[in-house]
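tokens incoming
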């Protein structure tokens, strides 16, 4: 069982638990997800099955799109609606003030991650330490917010946004910092991820639908996932959308599987390799299947990870 599933994660479930449910439904030996979603968040959670787990790191590098709601008036220790109120403010920012403040949270910015996050502190997860009562002041990190847009203000207490950002951005921190810049308090009250790299809402499937399809398959006496479920899987190379691909012959693919580099300066690959810097990552395809992740040294492509398909 190898491939990607764009899961529409339901509210109230951790990304790890949701990934486990997908693994069970598809009876896959291995599973992993690309980008954690908090329990209170919904939306696109790319789940890798089988050999696709070898491409998780590439999927995590993809740009992400979030739609979210800020609730003004309260800071919370988790920076979302699940946490304990730590401070309040009577200030409700005007729409014009919100729009003016967004430019300061766009581009390359310094962002302090939430105390309740999966970042490791002395070998332990920050959220475990925070739940145990530790007071954490995590170091700020440089992250990129490509776009931050105010969608509307349904009432004085709330504002809705869409953000496009890179790896490592916390929407909860965006709202916390925006509220502080506006002279008020605030936290995330709703969050939905609309895209992770090539994985979009249009491709995503609700967990409830997967469970229903699995139940129908088992009721019919099927010994494994039904064809309808398998049809939902995306190819392994979906996560490699931004990485150059090389076309190999069967003989070259066999050479890679033996751990040996291959020269790939044929005319059909020339345009690809001419644009590569030394040390660049690419991947090989042969007979319509991914063969390996490769490293380019300027003359030869060296196998880094093989796909056992």
């Amino acid at each position: 069982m190898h491939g990607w599933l764009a899961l529409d994660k339901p509210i109230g479930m951790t990304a790890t638990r949701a990934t486990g449910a997908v693994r069970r439904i598809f009876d896959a030996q291995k599973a992993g997800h690309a980008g954690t979603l908090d329990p209170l968040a919904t939306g696109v959670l790319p789940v890798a099955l089988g050999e696709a787990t070898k491409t998780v790191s590439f999927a995590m590098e993809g740009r992400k799109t979030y739609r979210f709601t800020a609730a003004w008036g309260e800071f919370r220790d988790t920076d979302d609606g699940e946490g304990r109120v730590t401070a309040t403010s009577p200030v409700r920012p005007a729409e014009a003030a919100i729009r003016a403040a967004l430019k300061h949270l766009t581009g390359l910015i310094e962002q302090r991650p939430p105390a309740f996050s999966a970042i490791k502190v002395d070998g332990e997860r920050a959220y475990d330490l925070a739940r145990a009562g530790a007071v954490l002041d995590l170091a700020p990190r440089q992250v990129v917010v490509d776009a931050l847009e105010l969608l509307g203000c349904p009432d004085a207490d709330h504002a809705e946004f869409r953000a496009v950002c890179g790896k490592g951005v916390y929407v909860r921190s965006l709202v916390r910092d925006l509220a502080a810049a506006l002279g008020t308090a605030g936290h995330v009250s709703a969050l939905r991820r609309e895209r992770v790299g090539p994985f979009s809402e249009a491709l995503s499937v609700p967990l409830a639908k997967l469970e229903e399809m699995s139940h129908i398959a088992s009721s019919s006496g099927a010994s494994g996932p039904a064809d309808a479920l398998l049809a939902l899987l995306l190819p392994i190379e979906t996560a490699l959308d931004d990485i150059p691909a090389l076309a190999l012959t069967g003989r070259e693919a066999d050479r890679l599987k033996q751990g040996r580099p291959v020269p790939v300066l044929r005319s059909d690959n020339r345009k690809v390799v001419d644009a590569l810097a030394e040390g660049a990552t690419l991947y090989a395809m042969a007979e319509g299947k991914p063969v390996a992740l490769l490293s380019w040294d300027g003359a030869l492509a060296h196998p880094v990870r093989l796909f056992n398909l």
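note: The chain has three domains: 3-62+198-236, 64-196, 243-306.
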